[in-house]
Amino acid sequence: xxxxxxxxxxxxxxxxxxxxxxxxxxxxxxxxxxxxxxxxxxxxxxxxxxxxxxxxxxxxxxxxxxxxxxxxxxxxxxxxxxxxxxxxxxxxxxxxxxxxxxxxxxxxxxxxxxxxxxxxxxxxxxxxxxxxxxxxxxxxxxxxxxxxxxxxxxxxxxxxxxxxxxxxxxxxxxxxxxxxxxxxxxxxxxxxxxxxxxxxxxxxxxxxxxxxxxxxxxxxxxxxxxxxxxxxxxxxxxxxxxxxxxxxxxxxxxxxxxxxxxxxxxxxxxxxxxxxxxxxxxxxxxxxxxxxxxxxxxxxxxxxxxxxxxxxxxxxxxxxxxxxxxxxxxxxxxxxxxxxxxxxxxxxxxxxxxxxxxxxxxxxxxxxxxxxxxxxxxxxxxxxxxxxxxxxxxxxxxxxxxxxxxxxxxxxxxxxxxxxxxxxxxxxxxxxxxxxxxxxxxxxxxxxxxxxxxxxxxxxxxxxxxxx
Length: 468
Hints:
By secondary structure, the chain is an alpha+beta fold. It contains 8 helices and 16 strands. It folds into 2 domains: 50-169, Tetratricopeptide repeat domain (Serine Threonine Protein Phosphatase 5, Tetratricopeptide repeat), CATH 1.25.40.10; 175-467, monomeric porin ompg (Porin, Beta Barrel), CATH 2.40.160.
């Protein structure tokens, strides 16, 4: 009899199972380059304290003369004293941006826009800073807002050119391939996601069904492609393979091959997608589980910093061993997400409401269930190519009452799962196009049936190399 990985990491048991269409690549050869720096907006020094007026005047002169490094050195020395003043923050942000310090510019200019949301000159520089910091989605939001403010023709042309380059770099013009390889390892306190009790209903459990800790190693690789079709249409496709080895829990060694393709549309504040995705999984070297499904998504910007999006997908989950066919289900999942962009130095926060159900395909199977949940996720850029991310979630699964588990001895099965994840991505380390990613993950699964109760800690580090 095969072993069921009740909580194995990866796409097999995921709530929103499927292939993430993460695409990238170099800018197509025909792509336009971004415009040069925009002219410095005129700012008044009225109301500025006398002890700051001379310094700010000199900084303006240096910027106008093209000496951004000199202006930055002059202004940065007084940040502890004057940070929070829109005039100071604006000049500091422009000096940082034009001297190659885009992340610092994002930080300063975000303060200006928060204090003076109608200061379009500062917002323009913030959009440029986000672009230079490679936060293309954040830059897209700011440029879209500015385009809707009826800017002068010359400014509108600059905005349009930036938008065109963003579209091209995000795959909406031309064609781009990329690939990656990744290796990692860590420690898992409960590699088989099982109860810590050695007995159930008076019987001794097989060791494979009792909590087992293990070190682990991982390998992954993939090829990605995105092509622009014009008029806001593009396609995104990927192939990926993942492998995980657990020396002290070999019975849950896992390999997964996954693929997906989608048609994407993006115009103004709207975006949408439609595609298919799937995976094939092996457990301990034997075929285990397959999924093939369709996915639909739609999203709309609400103003310049908020987005409301929805996603739905569904398809058959099938197990390859006859003895496990009782687990076969048709799975339908969905999520509605409200996101807030441009927080602080470019951070993002998203709140998702989750729902779905499994319909068991085998008569008498107790695995039909309904699911509801919520997740909050946030990410923050740190420097030019690094970032911090944190997630927390809750998921409740209620299984059909009849026929029930173990003859209905425990009544209706209900699982409540709490999850938490924190990680950091150190970009361009140890060299360009490398990313070092440490992370910590926790799961606490509470169930009305003790056999399915467990908790789990995982600490891991991965190193990824991208090829563009």
